[in-house]
Amino acid sequence: MHLLFTSSVALACGGFFCDPAPIDTGPVLNEFDTMVQQSGEVVILAVDEETQTTTMHVQVGFQGQAQDFAWVLPVPAQPELMRSTSTLFNYVSDQTELKWVLRNELVGCNRAWDEWSDADADADADADADADADVDTGLPEGLDIVAREQVGPYETITLTAEDSAVLVDWLQANSFMVPSDLGPMLDPYIGQTTHFVALRLRKDRDVGDLEPLALRYPGVEPTIPLQLTATAVVQDMPIEVYILGDARAIPKNYLHVQLNPLQFDWRAGGEQRDVLSRAVDEAGGKAFETVSAVQLEEPYHLESAYDFARLKGMPNLQTWLAALQGAGFTEVTITDLSAVVPVDPGIEPTAFFACPTCYPDALAAIDFDAVLFTDALEVQYVEPIRAAAQLFEASDHLTRLRTTMSASEMTVDPIFRFARGLPLVSAEHRLWLTRTCEDPDDDPEQVPFRAYFTLDGADMVFMAPSPAALRQEGFDIYSWMASRAESAALIIEDLDEGMVLVDNTPSFVDALAEGEEELSGRVDSASTGSCGCSGSPMTMGWLAAPLLLLGRWRRIR
């Protein structure tokens, strides 16, 4: 039997808090000594123009005891709360997954070789959380409870408040573990139509029961509440935002950056997070990069073909569990199974489902009914996937944006809008390094490189010195390219206004051309070889390159 048990890191938006119990809850931040630091955020925003609503799907992460957890999320209007599914997060990640392709090719030489490297970069996650207590029915003036609901494993309370201090006092009095000095973080959201969703796990649930949550509310201007997120985050926290709609999405009140391809660590599978962080810092700390913008085509394949009849015919629990993968339940989790199968509370669910027959007494105590268990799994596992699949009925474009931010930079909530008519953005980045020998007996180490970048569907071509020429100066081709790049951001732009604010393309082109000429000239004067580097031809090769580069990078989308 093989089951796919998903896991994750701390992800979400809003404020995470925990009681300062003597447990290992990770590092803390400043005076908020009762907070758990977030290590990242993944948010999916789906806008339906027809119904004039936005649906937000979030993943929450926590390490600690169930009773020590609370989560507060500000929402622009009264939300409808729903269960989400990790299948949705996996699906949108797969549709926009970064792909790095490196080809290092030697042509026409006796020592010919080809080297390909493919690496996929992705961010996805899940989490854990908990807390519970009875809620006081007495409400202070200016505070109103709009709704109380149980959503999956969560107990939720939706409130409005006119005073942040009153809201904090009430949350603390009702066993939501929030710090006393949270008020200033809540102030930007107080008033107008903002609702606060306070969430914790139900009394009968544990940390392992945590699952994604969905909220649908009126409005078609998607945003994420980063100002409250700033209560407890790691330095340069990665943030991934997926936006579904009828066109490509762009930041409305944040800048946009295009990364310098020379800074990418091609050998390690492409760009590393520090390049994005430095580019965002160069843009003032409030900017996003578009990882990918794709047009979705039916069928979406979010929902599998489930063989319910097969499961309902299984004679016992062991065969039922073993048949899940073949019946279409490819991403079933421990949480899903625990909600369906009543495992002895004294047994760790992960251990039980990995080997049910290792616990014969507990297995015998379960009153197995294949029909009832299958129907319950459909409600637990399939229905949230079906609801998520409906998001794609109103959307045919998916945009993936990302940034990194520290607490001091989270002073404005990012807002996004759809920019119709802008081109799509490919998530595939290619670097082809080619050396061609005029004679098969030429020394490949003396053959200069011809390099092709393929980024966002456009080709950029330049010549570079031979391996021998580079080695003489202490470089290989990758470190040499990186040495020519001074800026992590190639372009800093305001897509909402259609303006390029910083264009590092000229210096990018000049640095490569000057560096190539300088290094090739030194080697030519000190070495011989039938296929050596010539400064003049390689420099001439750059005459067309700036036009290619500028055509790609100066374009405002």
Radius of gyration, in Å, reads: 27 Å
How would you classify the helix and strand content by structural class? alpha+beta
Strand content: 25-35%
**Overall mean pLDDT score?**
77
Oligomer: single chain
Layout of helices and strands:
Layout: E1 15-18, E2 41-48, E3 53-58, E4 69-75, E5 80-83, H1 86-95, E6 98-107, E7 114-121, E8 143-151, E9 154-161, H2 164-173, H3 183-186, E10 195-201, E11 213-218, H4 226-229, E12 237-245, E13 249-251, E14 255-259, H5 273-282, E15 287-295, H6 308-312, H7 317-322, H8 334-340, H9 349-354, H10 360-365, H11 370-389, E16 397-405, E17 416-418, E18 428-436, E19 449-455, E20 458-464, H12 467-472, H13 477-483, E21 489-494, E22 499-503, H14 505-526, H15 535-540, H16 545-553
Parallel strand pairs: 2-12, 6-18, 14-15
Antiparallel strand pairs: 1-4, 2-3, 3-11, 4-10, 5-11, 6-7, 8-9, 9-10, 12-16, 13-17, 14-21, 15-16, 18-19, 19-20, 21-22
Helix pairs in contact: 8-11
Give a structural overview:
With 557 residues, this protein is of the alpha+beta class. The chain folds into 3 domains: 15-85 and 125-239 and 292-296 and 395-408, no CATH class; 308-390, no CATH class; 437-553, no CATH class. The protein contains 16 helices and 22 strands. It has a 10-stranded mixed beta sheet. It is globular, with a radius of gyration of 27 Å. Mean pLDDT is 77; it is low at 1-12, 16-39, 121-135 and 522-557.
